[in-house]
Amino acid sequence: MNFKRLVAISRKEFIHIRRDTRSLLFSFLIPFVLLLLFGYALSLDIKNIPFSVLDYNDSAASREFVSGFSQSGYFDLKGYLNSEAELKNTIDSGKSLAVIVIPPDFEKNLKASNKVTVQTIIDGTNSNKASIALGYINAISQSYSARIFTEDKVLKEMKAPLSSEIRVWYNEKLDSRNFIIPGLIAIIMLIIASLLTSQVISREWENGTMEQLIVSPVKPIELIFGKLLPYFIIGMIDLSVIIILGKTLFKVYLRGNILLLFVLSSLFMIGALGMGITISIIAKSQVVSYQLALLTSFLPSYILSGLVFPISSMPKIIQYITYLVPAKYFIIILRGIYLKANTFFILAMDVLYLGVFALLMFIIANFRLVKKLD
After folding, report:
1. 13 Cβ partners below 8 Å, 6+ apart?
2. Which 3 state secondary structure label does DSSP give 306?
3. Domain residue spans in the chain?
4. Over 60: is that where the pLDDT of 373 sits?
5. Opening angle at CA 137, ends 134 and 141, nearest 5
6. Taking the CB of residue 318, how many other CB atoms lie within 10 A of it?
7. pTM value?
8. At the top level of CATH, which class does the domain 49-157 belong to?
9. Distance in angstroms (rounded) separating the CA atoms of residues 238 and 236
10. Higher-confidence residue: 215 or 329?
11. Which pairs from 146-149 meet CB under 8 Å and 24+ separation?
């Protein structure tokens, strides 16, 4: 590889990027927009769940029980109902996701230390939202029951058969942003890298300058690395911007080694750039290469990487397909460094997969470009 020729190709690409306002805008504005959209809109936390109460007891104890839901921060009390007809109407209309039905003997049974059953009717149209809301309801009900257990003089003398103390590591508040923002880095970097570089070779064909490169002494590997170097630098700048925005806007702090993060991100960026230029070599049209890059980068990475949807819940055949998605391994690395401060040795296997991905992309790109130059 001739260093002077490589620098010349990179300089030529830098000049093109500088003159292309749309590419510059895409390079630096899109990561900011995507981070804002995904960071604020994509959240697994469910708050302000609308619920109503059908209270047949209407006592101080029942009102205290309901107040536990209102004060939790997860529920928004829409009001008290008077009949089962109103209950059906508020569920059907979507005004309330859940309705808590308190029996007439609620306070009486509590004072007598008898078992009390409270009914919860929940709208299961959105199964994910309903299951999370049901978990909140069970947790608040158990908390109220435990408090009654400790306050009752008779029950207080009895020893509970089982006591569990829960401690959450790495994401103490269970805030989904701490889980999502690191994963978004992989998606944004992949989109930027693959979409920008998917047009570098096809643009040469459309502009009629590819023939000049063919007859020049520039080797295929020099052309590939020279074309990718400017976009690699842009990608590293975007990574820095995302880390800063994640910290300032979303309070997602990096617990691990920042140097390790940049080194492993560079490996992923090289593979993503290699995938983009491979697409650009295969497709001589900028439109076709752009569509192929979008189809092979964003959609599989968003759906099959484990960013939002847990891979363990997918069908077995789909789980096997996820092994071919490089963003899956990079997201594991990002979350490990961000939340757990993992070291290189813990992440070694995922790093190996990324290395194989990067090497494979450049082998394919070099092979395909050799055939073009011949």
Report:
1. 200, 226, 227, 229, 230, 231
2. coil
3. 3-43+175-373, 49-157
4. no
5. 140
6. 13
7. 0.78
8. alpha beta
9. 5
10. 329
11. 148/110
